[in-house]
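Here is one chain, start to finish.
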Amino acid sequence: MKYLLASHGPLAKAAIESAQMIVGAVDNLQAVTVSIDSTLESTTDEIKKILDSCKNEEWIIITDIIGGTPFNASYRLLDEYSNILLVTGLNLPMLLELLMSNNKSVGDCKLQIENMKDTVISIVEKVSNHQIEDDSEYDL
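Its structure:
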């Protein structure tokens, strides 16, 4: 299983660096960074080159936002490569879960992502210390 993160600006590279701080070195993870000078064609070519470097591998491409250049470039390649799962909404909790899970296939990862999509984003509101002491739900 290989992972390709694609984002506007340095988000993808920073996510890799942050994940490696937590889980250690990871060799199945690459990044594509779109800059102000990038085009849809140049981004598609860059992603294609990475995919072609490991043709027999399954890939999960995680992009930052749907409809952006990294997503659109990846989407263009779905018909050409049958071994890709395209996911949008790049975030560190999702990436860490995938890297630590030892999933064996794209299908396993797809199921894991579907199961975690409601848990990786939380709205947290401040509660008083009195509420925390009285409520065993908060484990501090």
